[in-house]
């Protein structure tokens, strides 16, 4: 009888825990980005569980690996939704994997997704029933900012290559259009495929056209890194302009800081002198020793914290309540809540008060498409790291 009673008690306790999905591109072209981002997500869960838990129990993180591919994203999201029964998903990270997971798995199942990093303009117009969100600005914004950065550098003629996927085509098209509108000349434009060993034929076309620099919109762990390396090895280009996919310290390790000294990169960033960023970085480094300054740590933490706040605000793991709850905790009006302030948020929600989360990456006021405004940083190589030298809102 005592054993039976103990088992029943354990089952009841387990039933109170709430699983939350974390869809990440753990393997694949952005694998080098992932470890600090997993730490960021885990930190949010740790804070929640140490400060009162989620609903009436613990928050349980369940990771799914997209493998950096569309089919992998669909399979991983399907498992989170149909096997793990998560009420909401943080992720994915790449635009292509985010869109694939949403269209084939999350939207049909009525599950909210919050991506910390997916930037493709295609996400804006997806018929998503208010289920797909992101907390970084669309590439429609980043492409225009990058075009201005290039012109401000005095680069009037550039060659452009972008990867043939949702990410590359989205920002590549926006950049080219914006650069031409500013009076710049695109001397050659080449759309390239992923996972090739050699891009020398594409580079021959690009270099023959000339240009003051090569704009590369791709991932450093795949085509982007190879294109930069093969450009340098062939003496074809010495100055490169990249976006967030190329702002990967693996690129510096592979190419060398000296070879990238004249290059620069754009990426979503946080507002200048944001106290919530400083607060998160202090908490993160206290937990893990280092790594808070890595790309997208801020956004991954914030997206994870927001999904957990949405569940708490909804008062249950009912998927149908997540979208409304997410919008409520992310936007004004409400009492401000920042990184690590779970106990405060939980108490306010319990009292029936509105909260407004402002994170390490800034404020997140979703529009009707689940998009946000944001900030784009300009980065240069500084030793073995990237250094931010400017911010555009």
Give your account of this protein's structure.
The chain is α/β, with parallel strands linked by helices. The chain folds into two domains: 2-137 and 274-363, Response regulator (Rossmann fold, 3-Layer(aba) Sandwich); 140-269 and 375-392, Response regulator (Rossmann fold, 3-Layer(aba) Sandwich), CATH 3.40.50. 42% of the residues lie in helices and 20% in strands. The protein is built from 13 helices and 15 strands. It has helices at residues 2-16, 34-50, 70-82, 95-109, 139-152, 166-181, 200-208, 223-233, 249-255, 275-288, 297-314, 322-330, 342-350, and strands at 18-24, 59-65, 88-91, 112-115, 132-134, 157-163, 185-192, 213-217, 240-242, 264-269, 335-337, 355-359, 362-363, 375-382, 385-392. A seven-stranded mixed β-sheet has the order 7-6-8-9-10-14-15, sandwiched between helices. Strands 2-1-3-4-5 form a five-stranded parallel β-sheet, with helices on both faces. Strands 11-12-13 form a three-stranded mixed β-sheet. It is globular and about 65 Å long. The termini are far apart. InterPro entries: BCAA_transport, Leu-bd, Peripla_BP_I. Belongs to the leucine-binding protein family. This is Leucine-binding protein domain-containing protein. Residues 19-330 form the Leucine-binding protein domain.
